[in-house]
Amino acid sequence: MTKPRRPAQAGRTVRQRFTALYGVLFLLSAVGLLAITNLVSLGSRISAHGGGPPSGAQLTLETAQEHIALLQSRLSETEALQSRQLLIGSVIALAVMAVVSLVLGRLVAGRVLRPLRTITASTRRISADNLHERLAVQGPADEVKDLADTIDGLLERLEGSFAAQRRFVADASHELRTPLATMRASLDVAVAKPEPVPAQTIALADRLRVELDQVDRLLEGFLTLARTQHGALSDRATVSLGRMVSAALDDRAADIADKDLTVHDGEVDDRAWTRGSRTLLSRMVDNVIDNAIVHNRRGGWIRVAATADGETARLVVETGGELLDQEQVALLIRPFQRLGTDRTGSDNGSGLGLSIVSAVATAHGGVLDLRARPEGGLRVTVSLPLAAALTGAPA
């Protein structure tokens, strides 16, 4: 349950901290400015002293008048010199304190804004796959702490919403299996009666079985998608992408022959191993191959490759066909997105295949990339962490 936010305590707010810091900096700048100005003008005042009346001489009226004129002249020169010195000192002090103020202001602003940078960096790292993480900012109960607690509360609510949505999908898919099984059993019983069954009833039963199988595949896709998004990676093992591809192609040899497809063997690197759930990774490879077979034209071709590059293992599946729009292709990772029957000549499929591939790849630290080939057709690339990079040992 989300804890209620506590208001910032009086006397400890960021506003008051900024006020205090800026006041201290302004005071120090003023003191420094006055000190530099006085030091510069002090020298000119010292040098201006001296030049008293002539000693040992008998002052006469004429001599006194000359001495007074000389003193007045020296006083004027001294005042002009002091004015110039004061102006130069003020300019120098202003320039020095401007530089010092900028440096101090940058240091103080960086220190005060450090918690905000921490909050920003932590928030960027949090996504739908790690909503359990929290900012947990430590410090005084000020506006920054209040902001961090608010974001933590939002993340907690989002995590609950995501978990509830995934549980609903998984529970609904599981519960719907029972009525589907009952419907399928009822069809079998109706068709298996000893008395003659009308041909229309048999045709209707076959049609319903096909639809029930489609719904069953859809529910299985929902369950797999929910399981993957929950991050429940059981039966972890180090698997070979090349072997999984070979097994998937062998299991679908009949479907490939039925559509008269040509399979071109691409590069298969023996180092293309990754680590994760064997069941989910196998489902991922099966979905990519199924997508290449089902959404392909009769007499088309498929090229499959499994490579290793640096710390990444890649599965690449290419198909020929018509020119596709890249913007529409990029949307295929969303559930129930299709390019239509014009490309495939078939409306089979639940629309979850590539969504499951993307979810499985993400759950294993990888990524799915879909590209429309310039020559026509589609290029599907699944990039996963190389097993050697994960384990630190050669695969």
Automatic annotation (TrEMBL):
Q: Give the reaction(s) catalysed.
A: ATP + protein L-histidine = ADP + protein N-phospho-L-histidine
> InterPro entries from the xrefs?
HAMP_dom, HATPase_C_sf, HATPase_dom, His_kinase_dom, HisK_dim/P_dom, HisK_dim/P_sf, Sig_transdc_His_kin-like_C, TCS_sensor_his_kinase
Localization: Cell membrane; Membrane
Q: Where is the Histidine kinase domain?
A: 171-388
Q: Where are the transmembrane segments?
A: 20-40, 86-109
Give the principal location in a single coarse category.
Answer: membrane
SUPFAM superfamilies referenced in this protein's UniProt entry, alphabetically: ATPase domain of HSP90 chaperone/DNA topoisomerase II/histidine kinase, HAMP domain-like, Homodimeric domain of signal transducing histidine kinase
EC number(s): the record gives 2.7.13.3
From which domain of life does this come?
Bacteria
Q: How does it sit in the membrane?
A: Multi-pass membrane protein
The keyword NAD is assigned to this record:
no
GO MF annotation, one: phosphorelay sensor kinase activity
Entry keywords, A to Z: Kinase, Membrane, Phosphoprotein, Transferase, Transmembrane, Transmembrane helix, Two-component regulatory system
Q: Give all residue intervals belonging to the HAMP domain.
A: 110-163
The UniProt entry's GO CC annotations, sorted and at most eight, read: plasma membrane
What is the name listed in the Swiss-Prot or TrEMBL entry for this protein?
Answer: histidine kinase
